[in-house]
Amino acid sequence: MAYEDAYKDCIWMDFAYLEKFMTDALEAAGVPEKDAKIIGDVLIESDKRGIDSHGIGRLKPIYIDRIQAGILNPVTKIDVLKDDKTAAVLDGNNGMGHVVSHKAMEMAIAKAKEYGMGMVAVTNSTHYGIAGYYVTMATQAGMIGITGTNARPSIAPTFGVENMLGTNPLTFGMPTDEEFPFVLDCATSVSQRGKIEVYGRAGKELPKGWVIDENGNTRTDTQQVLVDLTKGKAALTPLGGLGDETGGYKGFGYATVVEILCAALQNGPFLKALNGIDENGKQIPYPLGHFFIAIDPERFMGLEVFKKVTGGILRELRASRKAPGHDRIYTAGEKEHLAWLYRKEHGCPVPPSLQKVMIDLRNHYKMDYKFDFE
Length: 374
Hints:
Layout: H1 3-6, E1 11-13, H2 15-28, H3 33-48, H4 59-68, E2 79-83, E3 87-91, H5 97-115, E4 117-125, H6 132-140, E5 144-149, E6 170-174, E7 182-184, H7 193-201, E8 211-213, E9 218-219, H8 222-231, E10 234-236, H9 248-261, E11 288-295, H10 303-319, H11 334-346, E12 348-350, H12 352-365
Parallel strand pairs: 3-4
Antiparallel strand pairs: 1-12, 2-3, 4-11, 5-6, 5-11, 6-7, 8-9, 8-10
Helix pairs in contact: 2-3, 5-6
């Protein structure tokens, strides 16, 4: 489907303008200028890549609303709990996840440059945006990047109906000899809350198989699903879907791997402790954990060899025989690159629901903005 058809109700906004608006809004909410620029860069990168679930759509509900509710610190204090040659542990003190994560991947890259590999674990952090942003930091430095984060409970274990695990992305970035890196950035569930929110803003029902209720029945009522996911009355299915016939146990297993690496290395909270609600139903912080790994291919057979072989693998995959009715095979990161090639000429699509959010934020913080869509 053409972008024009997919976003027919949207207006297209300049990326620099949109990034500045997000940065200004974050500063108005109490985030220091330097940190706001990091967060704005992460968010706009999502919109540039066509990942509409994690860009400006997350600005208010995930960040500003939580700052206003007192469960997210706008000023990020980072403590170094441990720092060894190839490993470190950081405490984000319930500050902005993007800020501590940016520092963590910088540290992992620096360690990899000196020692060949580096890994940094983070505790007491918060939502850090698209995981692909951080592995791309590594690819831009000529490194292999790996990251993962746990999240509030959403996924039901295979043969279970209770939301226990977060959507827990396990994300890889690898430099190639092509125009764009290989970046595999996806949840360990069939879908994830951000994508469900996109369906909600579009007034669309969910595809069957994404969400189940307490009896194991599939749910498609998008708006109520968003409510029930937070109440434990609905759960996302793991990659592979329900049961084990189509490999649902694989997604369940990978989500568990991420949960372990995001909690056990840093002695952090896990599973239901990330629910964001206390026993009295009051909102509390989401003390998330992350991990960041950087690997220097130069320490093996060299960066250029790695890039050439990686590119060769991807090109052969794309050139393989196509299924009937399909004329193209995509490798990870390609669709995001194509989205950027289109969007750098046209801007970012902003639907009516987000236009209203921008107006509300401007009015609330008395920001000096006049929008064309008013």
